[in-house]
């Protein structure tokens, strides 16, 4: 494999050698230099530190949590409880004594738990909620289910769509005033869009709904990819829901963080049973790894790759980069590509996306090629998504661009 070339503007920071060292920590990546894993929005690869933490736990103290009183059981309980605090610390929670962390299997389960166990009891007849109709379906289905559950009890709740800018896929914050009203009681939003990679600017939703309306943030594509600080007033949200497996932890791992400042405290209903202790161990190791690597540096690295891919692909004639037209950044000082976080989705005007996915794999690129679980999308809306993490390189992007260029 050829040497990793520096990203323009980043070489002075020593970013390239920093990245190479991190990449070396992913055994599955280094074992297959002929392949390029470009599907991290689906799930991330795992660094050695996470694999070793899991191995160490299973070979030294595997037991159930919150039950036994012998040392392995106590250690497991400490690991689980300590990881709740670690999640709060990772998210830079300004009030950890008030907030709560609940472990889940991923974002889908987390959003459903917020909907069923917190939102349904919270809403009353005539209330309105605002939800995204063009984001991941995991962030739409639970809210529609909540409306159905309430309707079965005779409680009529109106679900309104967050307005979207047709071309970019970003929320249309200028039209938020049209859907926010005195009965708006809850908003579900996405932090980074899983198709367009754009930051959805949740601070503008907060500005539109005022200080009292709870906001639930789907952070599946931001945790582990960029600095996420709840001590930042721009991130004044009430729930952060994410998948640990997209952030270097094991599959079947995720969490709901609840601020517990607006509305009732978040308490998942019913007996919770045995937690995913191994997943929780992996989550703790993953958060340690990510903090040591530096979420700001990770974001800078993947932004450089995203910009490189987007800028070149936009000028290759048969390709259409979704959500990235000229003039996208009308209300931002930054060029469109720089506002995208590690996700580039495109179509070839002459080759169906699923065929393009097969062709790319024949050249060693693992990408996603289908309707991407986008709410409202079906097979005919298929597209190819390239999604990146810190282990991806400039060389992989250039190799991909060369193959894409050969298909024009
Ligand atoms: C934005 C977004 N939300 C929710 C999900 C669902 O995550 P999980 O499959 O881990 O439940 C995904 C997965 O791709 C996503 O990208």
Automatic annotation (TrEMBL):
Keywords: Lyase, Pyridoxal phosphate, Transferase. It holds the Pfam family Aminotran_5. Its cofactor is pyridoxal 5'-phosphate. GO terms for molecular function: cysteine desulfurase activity; selenocysteine lyase activity. It catalyses: (sulfur carrier)-H + L-cysteine = (sulfur carrier)-SH + L-alanine. Its EC number is 2.8.1.7, 4.4.1.16. InterPro entries: Aminotrans_V_dom, Aminotrans_V_PyrdxlP_BS, PyrdxlP-dep_Trfase, PyrdxlP-dep_Trfase_major, PyrdxlP-dep_Trfase_small. Residues 37-400 form the Aminotransferase class V domain. Belongs to the class-V pyridoxal-phosphate-dependent aminotransferase family. Csd subfamily. PANTHER family: CYSTEINE DESULFURASE (PTHR43586), CYSTEINE DESULFURASE 1, CHLOROPLASTIC (PTHR43586:SF8). This is Cysteine desulfurase/selenocysteine lyase.
């Amino acid at each position: 494999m050829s040497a990793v070339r520096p990203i323009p503007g980043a070489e002075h920071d020593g970013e390239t050698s920093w990245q190479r060292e991190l990449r070396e920590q992913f055994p599955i990546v280094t074992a297959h230099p002929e392949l390029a894993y470009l599907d991290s929005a689906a799930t991330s690869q795992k660094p050695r530190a996470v694999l070793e933490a899991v191995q160490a736990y299973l070979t030294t103290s595997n037991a159930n949590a919150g039950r036994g009183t012998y040392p392995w059981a106590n250690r497991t309980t400490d690991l689980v409880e300590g990881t709740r605090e670690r999640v709060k610390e990772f998210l830079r929670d300004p009030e950890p004594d008030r907030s709560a962390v609940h472990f889940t299997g991923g974002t889908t389960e987390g959003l459903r738990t917020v909907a069923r166990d917190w939102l349904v009891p919270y809403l009353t007849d005539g209330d309105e909620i605002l939800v995204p109709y063009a984001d991941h379906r995991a962030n739409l289905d639970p809210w529609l289910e909540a409306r159905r559950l309430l309707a079965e009890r005779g409680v009529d709740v109106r679900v309104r769509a967050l307005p979207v800018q047709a071309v970019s896929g970003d929320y249309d914050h200028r039209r938020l005033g049209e859907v926010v009203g005195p009965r708006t009681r809850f908003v579900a939003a996405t932090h980074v869009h899983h198709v367009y990679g754009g930051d959805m600017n949740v601070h503008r939703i907060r500005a539109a709904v005022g200080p009292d309306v709870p906001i639930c943030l789907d952070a599946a594509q931001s945790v582990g990819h960029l600095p996420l600080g709840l001590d930042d007033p721009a991130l004044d949200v009430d729930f952060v829901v994410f998948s640990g497996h997209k952030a270097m932890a094991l599959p079947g791992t995720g969490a709901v963080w609840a601020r517990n400042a607006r509305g009732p405290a978040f308490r998942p209903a019913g007996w919770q049973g045995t937690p995913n202790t191994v997943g929780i161990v992996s989550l703790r190791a993953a958060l340690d790894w990510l903090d040591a690597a530096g979420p700001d540096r990770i974001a800078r690295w993947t932004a450089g790759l995203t910009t490189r891919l987007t800028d070149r692909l936009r000028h290759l004639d048969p390709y259409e980069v979704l959500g990235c037209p000229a003039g996208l950044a009308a209300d931002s000082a930054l060029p469109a590509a720089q506002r995208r976080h590690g996700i580039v989705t495109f179509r070839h005007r002459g080759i169906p996306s699923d065929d393009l996915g097969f062709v790319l794999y024949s050249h060693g690129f693992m990408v996603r090629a289908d309707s991407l679980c986008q709410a409202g999308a079906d097979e005919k809306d298929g597209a190819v998504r390239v999604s990146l993490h810190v282990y991806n390189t400039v060389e992989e992007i250039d190799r991909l661009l060369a193959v894409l260029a050969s298909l024009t």
